[in-house]
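About this split. The held-out portion is used to measure sequence recovery: a designer receives only the structure tokens and must propose an amino acid at every position. Recovery is the fraction of positions where the proposal matches the reference. Here is one held-out target exactly as it appears in the evaluation file.
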């Protein structure tokens, strides 16, 4: 069995996928790299995947499938994984060699221990085009360092410092046992990936190294603000699925106070992003969609609605009139500069 399976979802990725895969090959025989060609057309993605699989047959596996979107490619990665642990690295991102080797050493040391490691967390770095100073997202104030811990050992998470797909490695069996299946033909499902497995996570470990390099800067990137607005219905679909999930799990999670608080705050951030993008679009149709989103939350779970609606962000996203929306946008712009998203 491999120590770590790494899925690399690819769709028309010939321009940058080699940099990603090359950075992962450093892991050697402990690693299984699953290059998922998600129905690419018009470029050499499929051939490049096959070339790597032929050159590194004991490390690289090429999976070809009909186009189903990012979530579908991640699902295919999980289905084909033979490693004890599982990681997703997007084809335009890469990992840092020194940190990567530390990650593998840490996984190796924890594998087979008395308490099974469910989730390893590392730092990630925004590789934003045109910016010399890189924003590092680290968790020193939120998580114990260098030891196994549980949710009750966690501290308060700062705004903008949530556990994202870039920062997490799961135990493969946990993902399968919790039944995680991401929606097809839907963007922004990475939020579900780092949300739905959490109630199954018991033991975690935080390795304070800058492991994952998250590239920001392509005009066609899904996190580009204009593209997010154009795909707002997919963002709203994911948002509603997260509402459904937390509502269904709430009675179970109230006993795990820190985990519930974390998941509630993460849902609050996603709902805020949805709301601000709908405001930002400036159309009456999208303002109506914002009202429908909050109505959906209220009808689904009144207690959860009250917790989100009367929090600081909920109040800020629902200020009345054009003036209120202007204030909301101003707060969003400040957050963009501080946390350097989009």
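Reference sequence for scoring:
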């Amino acid at each position: 069995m491999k120590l770590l399976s790494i899925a690399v979802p690819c769709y028309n990725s010939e321009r940058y996928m080699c940099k990603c895969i090359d950075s992962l090959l450093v892991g050697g025989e402990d690693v299984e790299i699953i290059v998922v060609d998600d129905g690419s057309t018009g470029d050499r993605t499929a051939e490049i995947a096959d070339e790597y699989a032929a050159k590194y047959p004991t490390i690289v596996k090429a999976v070809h499938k009909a186009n189903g979107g990012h979530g579908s490619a991640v699902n295919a990665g999980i289905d084909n994984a033979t490693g004890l642990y599982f990681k997703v690295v997007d084809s335009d991102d890469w990992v840092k060699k020194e940190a990567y080797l530390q990650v593998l050493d840490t996984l190796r040391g924890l594998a087979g221990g008395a308490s099974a490691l469910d989730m390893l967390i590392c730092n990630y770095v925004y590789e934003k085009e045109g910016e010399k100073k890189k924003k590092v997202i680290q968790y020193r104030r939120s998580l114990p360092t260098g030891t196994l811990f549980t949710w009750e050992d966690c501290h308060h998470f700062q705004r903008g410092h949530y556990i994202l797909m870039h920062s997490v490695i799961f135990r493969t069996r946990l993902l399968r046992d919790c039944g995680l299946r991401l929606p097809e033909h839907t963007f922004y499902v990475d939020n579900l990936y780092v949300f739905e497995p959490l109630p199954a996570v018991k033991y975690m470990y935080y390795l304070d190294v800058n492991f994952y390099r998250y590239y920001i800067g392509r005009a066609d990137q899904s996190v580009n603000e204009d593209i997010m607005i154009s795909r707002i219905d997919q963002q709203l679909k994911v948002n509603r699925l997260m509402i459904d999930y937390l509502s269904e799990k709430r009675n179970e999670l109230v006993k795990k106070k820190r985990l519930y608080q974390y998941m509630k705050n993460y849902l609050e951030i996603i709902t805020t992003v949805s709301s601000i993008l709908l405001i930002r679009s400036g159309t009456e149709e999208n303002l109506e969609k914002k009202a429908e989103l909050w109505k959906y939350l209220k009808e689904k779970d009144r207690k959860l609605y009250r917790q989100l609606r009367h929090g600081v962000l909920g109040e800020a996203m629902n200020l009345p009139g054009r003036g209120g929306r202007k204030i909301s946008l101003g707060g969003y712009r400040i957050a963009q500069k501080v946390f350097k998203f989009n």
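Annotator remark: The two ends are 38 Å apart (CA to CA).
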